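Example 3.2
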Amino acid sequence: MKVNEAPSSGLQLDCETAAPFMRRFCRILLWAAGASLCLAALLEYAVIYFPPQILTVDSGNVTADALVVLGGAQQERPERAAELFKQGAAPRILVSGFGDCDTNVRLLEKNGVPANAIAREPHSLSTFENAKFSVPLLRQMNAHRVIIVTSWYHSRRALTCFEHFAPDLQFYSRPSYSGYQPKNSDRRQINNYVRFEYIKLFIYWVCYGVSPWYSN
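Structure, written as tokens:
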């Protein structure tokens, strides 16, 4: 009988020592879950209220040798580029982006930009390639001052990509403000783009060395 008591005593000891461990483990899980919820709430708050301060760059009323309008959104980008062109911001427009290049050219022409003022860069598949493939064409156009036209939430990453590939040129940003206001119905439709833009800024910094803090 005594021989059988030792395992029972050991099992009881294991349970007693395991209970505090499980309590600590549960507390850690609860703290982690709470921290995750807080971070998610902070990110959502940043998505709704902070993009203008973090993601948006607007250089104001500047003139340049060329505009570059980036693909990847709906018609607000070429419409903004056409508006700036008619205001005299620049005499030429380079349309960059695979897939929607021809569509954006048509929208520019529809909004009053003459065909002979438009050049194409139809091969780029990302913001990084927009800049990489456009810079040689801008040099061929003898453009030293360039305005980047994209969506407001994309403007910082776009501008810094162009500066990364051509630090000797002067780049400016004059974005479209479609969906800019937090409570606007258009804003709710693009909030996912805004969320991912924070992540893409970090990825471009780490993977490509494109600092989100531009030099202008």
